[in-house]
Backbone:
């Protein structure tokens, strides 16, 4: 774990409540709280990555969780301004755009092992045009977008499936899985197009069978996409549920 710029209270809660004895025995935590210097916060991200690389060199399959690249970028921004760098795109100095790829490109496969890295990015006002988010999106293999609107409705995990994407989906899934994924996205997109009409009570069924199906299945889709934090679901069970759900979409 690389926890960059977190509040001390949140860090203590994470250590006390989220990591049990089994997880602690298999974990390494690198922390630099928000009151630490910008140099220390930026360095912590590289330290966590270096430790993951050391385990990978020993033949391990490592999961690297780094929260967050936004706070890493803010720390580097402070360093850049202090060293006299000009501010460029998005109000960030050039060193931020130089160091982001240097950091994230160190994850991945090697001859001995692998690092699977998950990075969090904080965006303002749910805008995907945030400069850090835009840059990171161009560097990584995919992104999972969390929606404030879904969270406000009590829909957890608050993942906006339509806005999330994997660039390696075809490499790690079969054709049946990919087809079901595409069909679910089709249903979500169709429902989003008529959502306002439904709220106004002006939607008329019968014009498009795909849209009619999306409206009929909306509650079932939302139920399928919800999951309790403490209740893990096997992958095959999730895939079976996805296939059953999308099989109702007309060809």
Residues:
């Amino acid at each position: 774990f690389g926890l960059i710029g977190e509040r001390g209270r949140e860090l203590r809660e994470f250590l006390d409540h989220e990591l049990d004895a089994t997880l602690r025995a298999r974990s390494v935590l690198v922390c630099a709280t928000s009151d630490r210097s910008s140099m220390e916060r930026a360095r912590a991200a590289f330290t966590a990555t270096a430790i993951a690389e050391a385990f990978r060199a020993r033949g391990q399959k490592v999961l690297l969780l780094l929260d967050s690249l936004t706070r890493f970028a803010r720390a580097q921004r402070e360093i850049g301004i202090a060293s006299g760098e000009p501010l460029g795109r998005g109000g960030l100095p050039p060193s931020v755009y130089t160091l982001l790829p240097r950091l994230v490109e160190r994850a991945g496969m090697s001859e001995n092992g692998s690092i699977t890295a998950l990075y969090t990015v904080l965006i303002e006002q749910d805008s995907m045009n945030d400069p850090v988010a835009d840059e990171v999106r161009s560097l990584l293999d995919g992104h999972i977008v969390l929606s404030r609107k879904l969270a406000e409705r009590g829909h957890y995990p608050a993942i906006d499936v339509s806005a999330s994407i994997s660039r390696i989906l075809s490499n790690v899934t079969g054709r049946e899985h990919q087809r079901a994924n595409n069909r679910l996205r089709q249903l979500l997109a169709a429902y989003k197009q008529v959502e306002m009409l439904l709220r106004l009570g002006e939607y008329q069924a019968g014009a498009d069978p795909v849209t009619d199906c999306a409206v009929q299945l909306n509650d079932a889709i939302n139920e399928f996409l919800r999951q309790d934090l403490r209740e893990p679901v096997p992958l095959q069970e999730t895939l079976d549920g996805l296939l059953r759900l999308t099989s109702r979409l007309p060809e």
Remarks:
- Residues 34 and 237 are 41 Å apart (CA to CA).
- The chain has a mean pLDDT of 92.
